[in-house]
Design the sequence.
């Protein structure tokens, strides 16, 4: 990587951490990123994640220790992880599109094309 590119990547990484901030989780861990972001899921302990989603589920009216709370926690966690992963995927797709200078498509069969 060119020195100027490395500088820019480092600069924006520092700005990102500064903007999104960091916090201390329930287990004393340093938690990076906004709640529910891919970085948050990577840095927040299971206890921190559970506390966050428990608050959401309590807001829906579920009580601690019930089957309904357990189901809600699982549903909220899985949904949030899927949304975080989708945001990463969307970003990578948009980045690849912007980076691509031209798109070449080849027709294969009836109505099917392969583009690269």
Sequence:
């Amino acid at each position: 990587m060119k020195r100027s590119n490395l500088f820019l990547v480092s600069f924006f990484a520092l700005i990102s951490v500064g903007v999104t901030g960091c916090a201390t989780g329930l287990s004393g861990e340093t938690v990076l990123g906004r709640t529910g972001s891919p970085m948050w899921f990577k840095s927040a302990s299971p206890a921190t994640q559970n506390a966050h989603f428990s608050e959401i589920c309590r807001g829906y009216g579920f009580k601690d220790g019930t089957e309904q709370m357990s189901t809600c926690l699982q549903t909220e966690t899985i949904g949030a992880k899927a949304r975080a992963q989708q945001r990463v995927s969307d970003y990578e797709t948009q980045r690849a599109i912007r980076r691509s200078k031209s798109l070449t498509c080849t027709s294969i069969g009836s109505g099917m094309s392969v583009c690269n």
Summary: The first helix runs from residue 3 to 20. The chain has a mean pLDDT of 82. The CA atoms of residues 8 and 14 lie 10 Å apart. Residues 3-97 form one domain.
